[in-house]
What does this fold into?
Amino acid sequence: MGSSWKQGRLRSLVLLLLAVLVLGAAACGGDDEAGDGDDGGEAAEGLAAGTYKIGYVESITGRLAFYDPLFAEGMKIAIDQINEEGGVDGQVQLELIERDGQSDAAAGAVAARELVAEGVQFGVTPCDADLGIPAAQIFAQNNIPVVMSCGSGWTFPTIVGEYAFNNVFGTAAMGAAQAEWAIEQGWETACDLSSNDYFYGKNTSDVFQARFEELGGELVCNVFYTFDDTDFRAIATQIANANPDFVTTTLVFPGSTTFLRQTRAAGYDGPFVWADSIDSDAALGAGEALNNVFFTSHACHTDESVAEFYTAFEEATGDPPDASFIATGGDLVLLIEAALLEAGSTDGPAVRDAFDGLRDVEGISGTITYADAPLARNPIKNVNIVEWVDGEQECVDSFYPESIPEIED
It folds into this structure.
């Protein structure tokens, strides 16, 4: 009887010790916090309650003011939608903090330092790789994942390092898609209006030319623009005299509308296959010259998810959506949400790794994948071909190019 009592006593002590250990572990909980904005309770599993800060070095002023603020508006709509549903995983509220990078690399770097000092956990840079790289490097040095908003320079992630990603298909995918789609239309000769002033202009054209010639196309003229150009009549005459099947270009606002009007006046009335830089209502300034202009776009406004998002945008802002960059702003927020859920953490390296492995994320503009992408940390997502018809956009095609020449300079 004494031995049985001792064994029972020993079992009781063991059970008591186990209970203390379990209670102690539950009291300690996780130590992974979602920023320092909230003191809310913690989730039993997964993400801890709090605020996740996203810092955007946004070109509110300067030449990129045509693009960056539209992207930011798209981000805000998606953030509001997620927060109204209780946040990421019902725990984490998203907050966007904007700083004006002034469309300038040095000013952007200053803005990035300010955002890091403010405790942001995810960085976003302007719609141009050349302007955004210094800011992105500051985020990356602090182990903060960073995404170029709507810029397309496909080498941006490799230049900045493993913490950097592109949010949209890169210049290489865009140039290859332009070439493949033009050949599919039976257009075999092209004039290319390119630029050596920046990576976007040069690389899109270089990849287009390489893929176009691979497919049997012929470049019958190659002319160049600079950011300072305001008169394109000499270029327009060269194009008209060459009489190509189509013209391709990356020309940006505000020069786009002047170039279109002057090229039509010079006698060229054929099609253009433009880059995404003409995806804005600012293009309407070209008037009738805008007809027969096709361009690569990141979203089709008639797709159900895009149309719903645009409706939410108009209800929130009172303004109709101006460009597909609004949808890609929403895409980025959904990608951040997916990475946080996958990581189960707001820790910078964990979120970076999760972002790099994202697969088949249903974004606003379509399905987006980073895992096993042919171009490092550039998403696999369809390139949309859209046509301007009497001042309205009509979606024509949507595909990812079959082959992408990797031209890095």
Summary: The longest helix spans residues 2-28. The longest strand covers residues 50-58. The chain has two domains: 50-169+301-378, 172-297+387-399.
